[in-house]
Write a structure and sequence with these properties.
The chain has about 350 residues and is α/β, with parallel strands linked by helices. The protein is built from 15 helices and twelve strands.
């Protein structure tokens, strides 16, 4: 229902020709766009990534609307010297999926679009506990699924049902990433191999070495094991950051200067650690654009694009600042209601 409301609002604003108004008031000077998988058959992958059609539309829309697609380095440099001559868009890909090369790269080349790929070490070594791939394989491969850790059994006779159920379990893990470990037994009982899934979906070391030499590509860090850093002690979190950066630099023989926090989970401690180990920027999954006035380089917001939640219209709406406008209005309303409640509680009674 919430998604339907967002879509309806986006269509209404677009149909009324109000996108330019929202862009002038709410859109930033730059945006970092976040992708994961770029899927040829998005339905069979239970809409866990971005369809080719939506990906192509996103790039075409950015160019048509006058956004310059630039590297992250160039974007940050232009904003630092207050170059407001254009609006800038940065394309980022998390985790190092094979289809980022086999599917997305030819499209990026046709559009001469630079991009950043953030890669965890264990994706390349095939040892990552990629629970999200395990869950997808579990729901794709059977109609009756029991998630023991949740105490829930799903019956999913069709793809739509599988999408909805998978999203429910995914959200359950995202509420506390320590829950991911509780899925291991479920995967083992189902005969699902993490190593095999990693090999099927992620680039290997040689492929990443080749990609790093591409003139449009930049390689960034994504920690060693893709754990939520906020759940680790400081020493372990620092090791995750430093070891991944060292591994990637030795592999690609290039500086690795930029970071994506796994799941976007970070706080001030993680920002300081990223700076300490030698990164010059770090991206989150917090929704937002870059205004250019005040930029926290170690907590950069992004706008994620996924076929599970996005359409061509909703993409345009978010890029034009509609979601930011809604968040601003809701925040002001909540603040006002809080003040009114406080006044009611403190107002003296008469009589």
């Amino acid at each position: 229902m919430k998604q339907l409301f967002k879509d309806a609002l986006s269509y209404a604003i677009g149909s009324a020709g109000l996108f330019p108004v929202f862009r002038r008031v709410f859109a930033g000077r730059a945006v970092i766009v976040m992708f994961h998988e770029i899927q040829r058959d998005c339905r069979s992958e239970l809409k866990t990534g971005t369809s080719v059609e939506l990906f192509e539309h996103s790039l075409s829309w950015l160019k048509r609307e006058g956004w310059a697609i630039v590297s992250l380095e160039e974007c940050l440099e232009r904003l630092a010297r207050k170059d407001w001559s254009r609006r800038y868009a940065v394309l980022t890909f998390d985790d190092g999926y094979r289809d980022n090369v086999s599917v997305a790269l030819p499209i990026l080349e046709r559009n001469n679009a630079p991009f950043m790929m953030y890669v965890p070490t264990t994706a390349l070594t095939r040892t990552m506990q990629s629970w999200w791939l395990g869950l997808r394989e579990l729901f794709r491969s059977r109609e009756a699924i029991t998630i023991d850790a949740m105490g829930v059994r799903f019956r999913c006779p069709n793809l739509r049902c599988k999408e909805v159920a998978l999203r429910e379990v995914d959200q359950w893990v995202h509420q506390d990433y320590r829950r991911a470990a509780a899925l291991t037994t479920t995967f083992e009982n189902a005969g699902i191999s993490m190593s095999a899934l990693n090999d099927r979906y992620f680039l290997d070391a040689r492929a990443l070495q080749s990609l790093a030499r591409h003139p449009l590509a930049s390689i960034g860090g994504h920690t060693t094991s893709h754990q939520a850093l906020v759940n680790l002690d400081a020493a372990s979190a620092r090791t995750e950051l430093a070891d991944n950066r060292n591994y990637l630099e030795n592999l690609v023989q290039l500086p690795v200067r930029h970071l994506a926090y796994p799941y976007g989970a970070c706080g001030l401690r993680e920002e300081h650690l990223a700076n300490e180990v030698g990164y010059v920027s770090a991206v989150t999954t917090r929704h937002g654009q870059l205004s250019g006035d005040r930029i926290d380089r170690f907590a950069l917001p992004r706008i994620g694009v996924s076929s599970a939640f996005d359409s061509e219209v909703s993409f345009a709406a978010r890029m034009n600042g509609v979601q930011l406008a809604a968040q601003t209005l809701l925040s002001r309303r909540s603040h006002r209601e809080g003040l009114e409640g406080s006044l009611r509680l403190t107002r003296p009674t008469v009589g």
